[in-house]
Amino acid sequence: MKIKSTILTLAALLFMFTSCNNNAGSADMADNSSYKNKIFFTMENGELIRPTGYRSWVYVGTPVTPNDLNNGKAAFPEMHNVYIDPTSYDHYKNTGKFKEGTIIMKELVSVGSKAAVSGNGYFMGEFIGLEASVKSKEHFPDEPGNWAIFSFTQPKVGTLKERAKAFPYDACASCHDANAEDDFVFTQYYPVLRAAKNAGKGNPEDVSVRTASEKKIGIWEASAPTPQKKFDIPTDEKKLFAYLNSGKYKSLKVQEKEQHKSAGPHEYVRTFVSDKLAKSVKSGNSEHPIGSYAIKEQYKDGKQFGWAVMLKTGDKSNGGKGWFWYEATDRTDIASKAALGNGVKGCVSCHSIGQDMVRATFIK
Ligand code: HEC
Ligand code: HEC
């Protein structure tokens, strides 16, 4: 472990040295040296002092989880402006890793207006909260990944706390651990960090291609191989498409009686689940047995147009890689495939809050 990290440090140094040489005197390099190795937070008696100045750090993105798309009760209502300290951003650019002492701030902003002259949408209103995520072996030697997560928000009081204690792992970090793309950070929602990762000395924003990052990530493509085993439903695309069109799954015992509006993106839906899966969901299992599957018919204007399918192909869910995902959006056209394979990130991102990926609530 020790040797490994020394090699890594050496490699990083060598890398930085070479890059310095190539670009001696560039503005970037001068900037870097002013905050090189600086730590942007202070811990006192086990509490994080509310950081300030973060609006001048590196801005990485703004996820939006508004109340009106979350039954009026989003866990983090509205917009989340996320910033990373500049030392850690540079380190991430150079090494592709979050360094010891990384701090990421998430500032919550209300939806101020839903219409502007540019069109309807979500427009930022007022600051309503502040959260922080910190990686530090020095301060959190016993936390998984050495990450600790904090909140300064006091919704009822209306002002921020001056200091905060870390939440227990189960309250916050566990979900980050299980679902975040890189270490404990949700880089899948931060194009700025994805573009920066391992970019080295260059400015990632100089790249002219504007669709590449989405393509590179391929969020609707498989991120893991599908095991070549036999299951109760086929995983071969042609055979699966034919199977779905045969309607054989309609004889499954556990099924919804009729279509209803999806709580997710699936338009109107009607779900059928395998006996194995139904039994496991009812028993409250956090790992469903291999071979479990669910098939969801998707409807629009009363007509069934396609299917979404999930099949467990491993003993372990493994962040969604142990599940096979499939979606076709036109039942007459196999080319309408929207997703195929194991660990499809676009599907997993939503399903990971389910009971081992299963989101349906009717199986009781
Ligand atoms: C059910 C999963 C889940 C739980 C539990 C959770 N978070 Fe997060 N958190 C997310 C997601 C997803 C994002 C990125 C997208 C967003 O902000 O909506 C995020 C982003 C963050 C960020 C920005 C840095 C990053 O890693 O992307 C902070 C800070 C944060 N959460 C704090 C908290 C705090 C504080 C708690 C506990 C009170 C908490 N989170 C609990 C899912 C979760
Ligand atoms: C935006 C969130 C979201 C995304 C993205 C998503 N789903 Fe779902 N899915 C849901 C929700 C919520 C349900 C529960 C039933 C409902 O309301 O539609 C569900 C249900 C299902 C079901 C029925 C079994 C279950 O878990 O309830 C299948 C099968 C399914 N989705 C497959 C997929 C596939 C394949 C993809 C990717 C192509 C996908 N889903 C992407 C939210 C999502």
Describe the structure.
There is one protein chain. The longest helix is centred in the first third of the chain and has 21 residues, at 2-22. The protein contains nine helices and 16 strands. It has helices spanning 2-22, 27-35, 86-95, 173-179, 191-196, 212-217, 237-246, 275-282, 345-351, and strands spanning 43-44, 47-49, 58-61, 64-65, 78-84, 102-116, 119-135, 147-151, 163-165, 254-255, 260-261, 268-273, 293-300, 303-312, 323-328, 337-342. The protein is globular and about 65 Å long. It folds into two domains: 37-217, Chalcone isomerase, CATH 3.50.70.20; 237-351, no CATH class. The site of one heme C (HEC) has 23 residues, from strand 5, strand 6, strand 7, strand 8 and helix 4. The site of one heme C has 23 residues, from strand 5, strand 6, strand 7, strand 8 and helix 4.
